[in-house]
Amino acid sequence: MVNLAAKPDTMYDFGGFPSILYTLRYPASTDLKLAADVVAKLRESGLRVGTTDQRSLDHGMWTPLMLMYPQADIPLVMVSLPHGASADTFFQMGRALRTLREDNVMIIGSGSYTHNLWQLSADGSTPQPWAAAFAGWMDQALQDNRQQDILHWKQLAPLARENHPTDEHFNPLLVVMGAASDDATPAKLHDDWRMGSLSMACWRFD
């Protein structure tokens, strides 16, 4: 689904966090021309695409953008990922959109390198061995540009399901990997751990 809401509201699709988070707003505007291009490119690649003008910006969209562009002065297009799709489908989405980079469009895959909210420790705790093992394997796979291994991460990465009981926080990585230039080695921009098992690693794909 591609969001066509011209002035999307801010969605608080999370629970159990400090009340101040529910007062934040990110009043950005959708680039409707770019959104139409996104729809066309996805359809041309053979993917099923829908649109909506009723969607607010979810926290996967506005939380990183609030840190990157706090004035909300960058036009954006929010694209959802198909639930239950294959890794190859997410990679294909990236391939379909990567020519947008030639028009100075930044493609952001917003998720979490590890994301098991049932295995949290006190903030500041040493990363759990099972989380560190997964992140270390993924780091090396990305640095070696082992795309096929990453696409088959559920079978090959250590303790994959312990780190990602569900896929939605990992799948955006597959999209941006698909949008990357051929044979381009990604670079890690940031590395941080929260609550003993949440990796906040951030990668750049050229």
Automatic annotation (TrEMBL):
Requisite cofactors: Zn(2+)
Record carries keyword Hydrolase? no
Cross-referenced InterPro entries: Extradiol_dOase_DODA (IPR014436), Xdiol_dOase_suB (IPR004183)
Q: Where is the Extradiol ring-cleavage dioxygenase class III enzyme subunit B domain?
A: 2-191
Stretches that traverse the bilayer = none
Top-level taxon in the UniProt lineage: Bacteria
Q: Which Pfam families match?
A: LigB
GO MF, any single term: oxidoreductase activity, acting on single donors with incorporation of molecular oxygen, incorporation of two atoms of oxygen
Q: List UniProt keywords, sorted A-Z.
A: Metal-binding, Oxidoreductase, Zinc
PANTHER family membership: 4,5-DOPA DIOXYGENASE EXTRADIOL-LIKE PROTEIN
Can you tell me which family this protein belongs to?
Answer: Belongs to the DODA-type extradiol aromatic ring-opening dioxygenase family.
Q: Per its record, how is this protein called by name?
A: Extradiol ring-cleavage dioxygenase class III enzyme subunit B domain-containing protein
Lineage of the organism: Bacteria, Pseudomonadati, Pseudomonadota, Betaproteobacteria, Neisseriales
